[in-house]
Amino acid sequence: MRLKLLTLALALSAVALPGHGEDLLDAYREARTNDPVLSQADATRLSVHEGVAQNRALLLPQISAGLTLNQSSNGGKGRDENGDTYDFGHSRTRTISGEVDQTIFDLSKIANLRAAHSQSDAQSELYQAALQNLFVRVTQAYFNVLTSEDALEFAKASEASFKRQLDQAQQRFDVGLSAITDVYDAKAQHDLATAQVISAENTLNDMREALTQITGKPATDLKKLRDDLPMDAPAPNDPNAWVAQALKTNPNILSQQYSVEAANHSVNSARAGHLPTVNAQLIRSKNSTWLENGRLSSQGAGAGNGRFGNTIGLTLRVPIFEGGATQSRVRQSIYDRDAAQDGLEIQRRQVTRDTLNYYRSVIAGISQVEASKAAVTSAESALAASQAGFEVGTRTIVEVLIAQQNLTQAQSNYSQTRHQFVLNKLLLKQAAGTADLKDVEAINALLQ
Predict the structure, then answer these.
(1) Are 170 and 183 in contact (CB under 8 A)?
(2) Which residue, 191, 39, 192, is CA-closest to 127?
(3) What are the structural domains of the chain?
(4) How does pLDDT run across 310-369, given as a tens digit for each residue?
(5) Cis omega (within 30 of 0) on the bond before 61?
(6) 56/43 Cα distance (integer angstroms)
(7) CA neighbor of 361 nearest in space, from 408, 422, 315
(8) Of 95, 96, 87, which is closest to residue 301 (Cα–Cα)?
(9) Which of 36, 263, 397, 405 is the most exposed place for a label (fewest CB within 10 A)?
């Protein structure tokens, strides 16, 4: 009877009990608000977008105003009608002006504006990638906590079982039914199990902190994954279809494509450094000049005020030679474009590999979950048989201890494969660029 109760307790330790704690959607909502990684991606996106306004501004009218005040000394001395000596003094000139400058033709500025648009689009796609990555990071951190909680439960159950084995071995040795080596073996395994409990507690604490790092809120009581998981294959059940989808919609690939576009526009901008530019100007100004006499007998100074005048014109600038700088900028922009194209190819190959890997992982995960579940059942039966054999003398205590280790390992593997199977389905959608909040909601529906 005691053996049956022990087996039942170990089996129940692997089953998630209903709870009313925080679920995955709660964790996601907190992360959506508090995650600094996503906030950083959003701030970067907004910052890069400002480059569009700045490059567009260079093609719009530039308006400025100025005030200039100059003073010049006339030098020398003179005599007035009374024969008195006086200095000629100095003169002052004041210029008030307003200017409007409008670009008429400048292909370099136009190409830079187009490049800024492409860079902004690239950063927007990176933000979408960060958003989809948040779905994965929250789910992975959440499941890491659940896996660590299961591991701690299994470690505690194993430690309790080894403690009973140690007590039983000690009692059998005391009455002369077994050797002292059985006590030593049982004690060694119990000590190891105690250390594993401590390690599992530390791992659980760290996994909770990892989830808190994303959500900004301490993770305590989390809902667990229910036992009856749907073992569905990916839809469509075709790896090539998933790869084709990924190459079209993966945000990292789209971002790199926009980066290549921006690099092409930068090449055009650099080449436009050889072309002439045309600007139109409208200047409205007024000059005022007056003379201040330095004579002691002077009662004042003569003054003259000008009137506002307008100047309208076009400026044609033709670059001829800049020491080779323009051609160097062309070569540099071409190299940058080549690097961007290589980056796009790297991204495509990586996404293709990731998509196929996650697709195969989901397919393999169906069998792995079923196999690991069967392994738990087999390990429980093996432990029960070893325990019964030990009590009648047909099995050694070492065999019982090994059977207990195998059961704990099988339970841990079952917990990990179940959580990883659900996570791999989300990772497959992330690789395809189709991960959405609905996917998180679907996973959340599997919790209890």
Answers:
(1) yes
(2) 39
(3) 2-59+106-276+322-444 (1.20.1600.10), 63-105+277-317 (no CATH)
(4) 899 999 999 999 899 999 999 999 999 999 999 999 999 999 999 999 999 999 999 999
(5) no
(6) 21
(7) 422
(8) 87
(9) 36
